[in-house]
Amino acid sequence: MTTADALKREAAAAALEMVANGMRLGLGTGSTASWFVRLLAERVAAGLEVVGVPTSEATAALARELGVPLTTLDDVDGLDLTVDGADEFDGELNLVKGGGGALLREKIVAADSARMVVITDESKRVEWLGAFPLPIEVVTFGTGATLRAIRAAAAGLDLSGSLAFRMDSNGNRRVTDQGNWIVDASFRQISAPKALASALSAIPGVVEHGLFIDLASTVIIAGRTGVERIDRPSL
Ligand SMILES: O=C[C@H](O)[C@H](O)[C@H](O)COP(=O)(O)O
Fold first, then answer.
1. Fewer CB under 10 Å: which end of the chain, C or N?
2. Of 106, 122, 208, 228, which residue is the catalytic one?
3. Which GO terms describe its molecular function (predicted)?
């Protein structure tokens, strides 16, 4: 196991301690969240009773393969806890997510959860969000108009940078689990994430964006010197 994997596993293990019998869980997407699913599966095999709502087809496949019982948001009345990774988090526990393309389902699931716990390693901690290109999920119709509107919204906040469609391994635009495309916006330093989130959400062709504002209740950071946990003060 690489050092990076070991840290991801440690963060996932710390989040697992917050899981109790009978919980309805949101299951995140990505290399860190998949460690949580693996460790959760071991506890399920040992008798823990939980149900999970996966945030992507990839996570659903992994959970099924490992025997984690799944459900949907239509079949439960909200979730107790979502555990997910992030591409960046700042001092206010605002996040950039969507590096794996799952931001839309991830945000729906997180928003329907009493708590969202983010599992990360030190490399994800930033002073300003934006060094990681911000994923923006857009409908496939009228992308010229959507990109112009994104540029205008960004310019209104003194932001600029390249907008690039995310591509798949075949050189085609990457299609998300919901059948949309993703635009990665290289804004570099997002000094007003809440304002940018609102401006992007107001654009008709934008389905969702990877700014997760006021959603994370806790961030768990695994580092070489141990595991740190930061809770959002109001929660
Ligand atoms: O769409 C993907 C998600 O937002 C991931 O949780 C995020 O990209 C972090 O992934 P990883 O744990 O692989 O760095």
1. N
2. 106
3. ribose-5-phosphate isomerase activity
